[in-house]
Design a protein that fits this description.
Elements lengths: L3 E4 L6 E4 L5 E5 L2 H7 L3 E7 L3 E4 L3 E6 L5 E6 L6 E6 L5 E5 L13 E3 L15 E3 L13
Parallel strand pairs: 3-10, 10-11
Antiparallel strand pairs: 1-2, 2-5, 3-4, 4-9, 6-7, 7-8, 8-9
C-alpha cells in the first residue's frame, strides 16, 4: 500500500496518506493563483486515507465551478494543505509541495488552463482541461 507523509512549514500540522492518489494535476484557476501566485500542484485522495495530527483552520468559498470549497491551512504558519469540494464528496485535495517528498507524485494534467496567465509554463505533455474537469475516471482530458 502506498504511503505518503507531509506537513506545514512550521511543523505544527503533520499528515499521512495511506492510498494512491485518484488524480494529480496542476490547477490554474484564479483561486489557486491567488493562493500560490502561480498554478498549484495537487493530488486528490480519498478523504478516509488522510490522517492529520495538529489542528487546521479553514476558509470556505464558492469556486468558479460553482462548487463550495473548504480550504484547510496551518493556523500558525499559514501553509495551505488541503481542500475539500462539494463537487467531490469523499475526496480531499492535497498540495504536493506539502509532501515530505514532493517528487513522489507527478501531475498528469493541467486544469483550468484557460485561466493561466500568458507567462505560465504549461507542460504540453500533460493532459489539458480549459475549465473544471469531470470527476476522476469519468472522462478523458484533451
Amino acid at each position: 500500500m502506498a504511503s505518503y507523509q507531509g506537513g506545514c512549514l512550521c511543523g505544527q500540522v503533520r499528515f499521512s496518506l495511506n492510498a494512491e492518489p485518484v488524480a494529480s494535476r496542476v490547477c490554474w484557476c484564479r483561486d489557486c493563483q491567488k493562493l500560490a501566485a502561480n498554478g498549484t500542484a495537487n493530488a486528490i485522495f480519498p478523504t478516509e486515507a488522510l490522517h492529520i495530527t495538529g489542528s487546521t483552520s479553514a476558509f470556505t468559498s464558492t469556486a468558479d465551478s460553482g462548487n463550495e470549497l473548504r480550504r484547510r491551512f496551518c493556523p500558525t504558519c499559514g501553509s495551505h494543505l488541503f481542500a475539500d469540494s462539494s463537487g467531490r464528496p469523499g475526496m480531499t485535495v492535497v498540495r504536493l509541495g506539502t509532501l515530505d517528498d514532493p517528487s513522489a507524485i507527478q501531475p498528469t494534467a493541467n486544469i483550468w488552463a484557460a485561466s493561466a496567465p500568458a507567462w505560465a509554463c504549461l507542460d504540453t505533455a500533460l493532459a489539458r482541461s480549459d475549465k473544471q474537469p469531470p470527476p476522476p475516471g469519468q472522462a478523458t482530458l484533451r
